[in-house]
Amino acid sequence: RNLGYLFAFESRRAEVMASSTPQPPTNGTAVPTRKRFDAQREYTRQGLFTPRIIGEQQFLPWAPVNVNASYSLCASYPSFLLTPSKITGQEGLRLLHKVASFRSEHRLPSLTWASNIDGASLWRSAQPKVGLQGNRSTADEMYLRAIAETAHDVTSKCCPTRPSESFLQMLTGNMSGDTDLLLRENSALVTKKNGVIGGGLASHSVGENKPKCWMKILDLRPKSAAMANRTQGYGYENTSYYQHCTINFMGIGNIHAVRDAYQKISNLCLSATANDIQWTQLVEETRWPSMIRLILSASWQTAFHIYFNRLPVLLHCSHGWDRTSQVSALSQIFLDEYYRTKEGFATLIEKDFMSFGHPFHTRGGHGEGRGERGGVPGSVGNTGSSGGSGSNHGGGGTTVGGGGGDEGQLSPIFLQFLDCVYQIVNQYPDYFEFNTKYLLLLSEHVYSCRFGTLLCDTEREREVVAGIRQRTFCLWDYLDSMDELVNVNYVRQQEWRKQSKKGEDDTVYGEDGVLMMPLPTLLRNVTLWTDRHCMYGPKATVRCMPEELEQYCTGLNSGEGSHVVVAKDRAPLLSTNDIVDGELKRAMEEVEKWKNIAKSYLEELDILKAGGVGEKEVVVVDDDDAVIVNGGENVEERMITKVEEEVSS
């Protein structure tokens, strides 16, 4: 597929053409834009390279491997991979190659996030090649066992605590406690019960304290779809062969279901004849909101297993680059406060979508005509002479894959992810550095081709073949330049911890920046992202005035954060929220006024009590008034009388 004619490349054409080399330059005038995700820096920030201190020993559970530095092991994976520190040497490299050969597209389990305290961590991969014959891979089983044992060794010796079971039941929304999330069979965690710490390793014998689940596998597909994939030579893990592992199916639909639901919600929002009385019902019938809830639920459960159960979690779907990227990124938003900042959110997208091979070009079909067949993500080529437009745009044509317009592969996966992020930001806006406008603008530029940040399918295509950072402008730089995309009410987690009580059940925010609201609260408050889906609808859905009527308007309401338009000879169209906000603002101003008055009189009263008044002394109260105070008179009564006169006036 030829990307050279896209506007993203044309916008920096002059810089690239001025460079001395025809390929993406390293020392020409086209300076590469800054990468938000630098693997070494990001994993250092997570604390992955900081040894865990267990007793008198230091232990590093995870370690980088140089197995994919040239993208030879897996073309759709990043060059920097992390594995258990037990996997070392040439024997370890041979093991990794065997594991990759047993996974779809050679996408072996790789670490993307880990706790800096114990073995709780997040891993991602593609489905195994089980097939109808029930194929096994000793290397794959050994590799997952190494992850589980490494995590368990660290966690069991750290003995982390977690809230009471009643609190966890409240979070999960299962008040009967009959849920797989609580993992009662695990005794490796210390649980607080009635103020007494118990249930830890010390209170069990060796045979009793061995947990049944050391690692959780979350297959994001419906189980029926996972079983059907066995006919194609794939499938899911048989936990009879994977020691200490349990598996759950999350039931998230594939790219075709997402595309169909998005087409339905788009048609509904663009319809001029939709029944407004049944609007909510019609929105639900598109199944788009239910898909959002499924993804949010899977992400929340992933974060729950990592944070409360202190387990390593392995995520995968079919190929591990669509649903896996969505759930992996969302769960890290719950787990890590850094990803709720602008810089961190950009880092998260570059890490879990771009570096781990979400096929942006294949899913978006940028610049492709109908019926043009595309290549598989990861297959790349450079044919600068093919296509007239390619050789004249962006300093030379860049062909990646050799096609890409297969309509069956088009699907708004990344837009669906942004919709999920919108739901969290909409419910808990003060815990994000960016606002919903940031997400809206980002969603528009997924398809605008104005920036090259979200082009191509893999890290290899961007860095090696297309030279995206040298030849196009950066979307993150553009978003960072706009002050209106910043949430002015954002308060970092450390400030909230200073303001809140230290308690077990009185806050959903952990000591390390975890955001874990009750699951029913999250799912029941999912709403339609009207700013995005109804942006071009013929009916008024968002609280704004059509552009055609702007000429009849006199201005905007001066209230901060309000978007109410006031037309000539008409009262402003105020909603309930606008009225409440206005009343609250006036009340707060009145309170502040009387606080200042009271403070000034208290300061004068302190001066008088200090004995600085003689037989007759003038105490200046304000510019227009004065009080003569005799030494033997009651000063407090005089001041109270003065305050009463001020109030009555």
Structure overview:
This protein is of the alpha/beta class and 649 residues long. It contains 24 helices and 16 strands. It has helices at 7-10, 13-17, 39-46, 89-101, 138-158, 165-172, 223-228, 255-269, 279-285, 288-307, 323-335, 342-355, 360-364, 388-392, 413-427, 436-444, 459-466, 468-471, 475-480, 493-499, 519-524, 530-533, 576-609, 635-648; strands spanning 52-54, 57-59, 62-65, 81-84, 110-114, 121-124, 161-162, 190-193, 196-198, 215-219, 245-249, 312-316, 553-556, 565-567, 616-622, 625-630. The strands form 6 sheets. The chain has a 5-stranded mixed β-sheet. The protein has a 3-stranded mixed β-sheet with strand order 7-8-9, with no helix packed on it. Strands 1-2 form a two-stranded antiparallel ribbon. Strand 7 (161-162), helix 6 (165-172) and strand 8 (190-193) form a beta-alpha-beta unit. Helix 10 packs across helix 11 and helix 11 packs antiparallel against helix 12 (342-355). The termini are far apart. Mean pLDDT is 79; it is low at 187-211, 373-405, 501-511, 550-577 and 613-632.
Question: What would you say about this model in short?
Answer:
The protein is an alpha/beta fold and 649 residues long. It has helices at residues 7-10, 13-17, 39-46, 89-101, 138-158, 165-172, 223-228, 255-269, 279-285, 288-307, 323-335, 342-355, 360-364, 388-392, 413-427, 436-444, 459-466, 468-471, 475-480, 493-499, 519-524, 530-533, 576-609, 635-648; strands at 52-54, 57-59, 62-65, 81-84, 110-114, 121-124, 161-162, 190-193, 196-198, 215-219, 245-249, 312-316, 553-556, 565-567, 616-622, 625-630. Helix content is 39%, strand content 10%.
